[in-house]
Amino acid sequence: MRIDVTFDSAGLTLAGHLHTPDTPAAGPRPAIVVSHPMTGVKEQTAGLYAARLARAGFVALAFDAAHWGDSQGLPRFLEDPAQRVEDIKSAVTFLSVRDEVDPERIGALGICASGGYVAAAAATDHRIRAVGTVSAADEGSWFRDGLGGTQTPGELAAMLDLSAAARTGEARDGEVRRQQIHPEDEPERGAVKKSITRHIHEGWDYYRTGRAHHPRTENWFAARSLDLLTQFDAFRLIALIAPRPLLMIAGTEAVSDYFTVGAIEKAREPKELFWIDGADHVDLYDRDEYVTPAVEKLTGFFAEALKAPGTVAA
Fold first, then answer.
1. What is the pLDDT of residue 314?
2. Buried-most residue among 34, 87, 226, 278 (CB within 10 A)?
3. What angle do CA 302, 306, 309 make, to 5 degrees?
4. Domain 2-146+233-305 falls under CATH 3.50.50.60
């Protein structure tokens, strides 16, 4: 079952979909906050994973981050890592006071950018008892260094100049400067799967076609997000998640896999890196042949990590 819910995050009302199992329970259930990629909304991959986790017996909350989707926040489509981390903590607060949820058994799952956001949130919020990621990315590194470390210092400086000008311009005339996300027309797909060219096509194919396009995900973000993103370090405190368990899932063909590898190296036990053979970064958003094994792994992980004291995992 899925119901529409709202909750507060730093004075903004966020919109969510609360997914619950169809079968009755003897008492409160374990719950999982599911956070979407940058540029995404709850109806896309976050909602898909939340629905699948609910079928496995969890209460799962997929929600629109502040400034995105149905949630409040101006300017629209601002990507503020600090706010995104706060949104996850606020989602935990929302779940922790619901009758159907055991507040001692709440986990978090982040996809793409939210893989970094949930790691940052869980590092200092001990209410999050287990952390899972899928195709995790450090958006700070992505914007500072470029995907795969391909960005030059000059390109970074130009990007920050753009962000600074956007702030001043918005203050002067109230107009939000925009930065395009995906090409309007289909880009080259590229012959090499694990490449930046292929990754750009992956993102376009998911967000800009009937595969997952949603009317509330316009093809831009607020340009003054750029300096906010650049100063973020998603995995700086990842070691603080321990001794709570961490599971990170990545595709063997994802050009972004180095984010997950680097994060796992920084994390402390208990931790696990689980590879999905043949999957690229975006395959893990919705392609069933890759999502199914990812969900099976997540289900077992969260069942063990969030089991009630004195019980065995289902």
1. 47
2. 34
3. 150
4. no
DSSP state, 221? E
Structure tokens at 87: 């949104």
pLDDT computed for residue 58 by the predictor? 98
- What pLDDT, on a 0 to 100 scale, did the predictor assign at position 309? 75
Question: Alpha-carbon distance 292 to 298, whole Å?
Answer: 10
d(CA 199, CA 216): 23
Q: What is the pLDDT of residues 269-304, one digit of tens each?
A: 999 999 999 999 999 999 999 999 999 999 999 999
Q: Would you kindly state where each structural domain of the chain is located, as residue ranges? A: 2-146+233-305
Whole-angstrom distance, CA of residue 36 vs CA of residue 33:
10
What are the tokens at 178? Answer: 């925009």
Beta strands in 208-267 (DSSP E): 220-222, 246-251
210 touches 186 (CB < 8 A): no
Are residues 136 and 110 in contact, defined by beta-carbon separation less than 8 angstroms?
Answer: yes
For residue 116, what are the contacts with CB-CB under 8 A and spacing of at least 6? 81, 110, 136, 137, 138, 139, 140, 232, 234, 235, 259, 263
- Are the C-beta atoms of residues 273 and 264 closer than 8 Å to each other? yes
Instruction: State how beta strands 29-35 and 12-19 pair.
Output: unpaired
Q: Which helix (H) or strand (E) holds 162?
A: helix 153-173
Beta bridge partners of 63: 16, 35
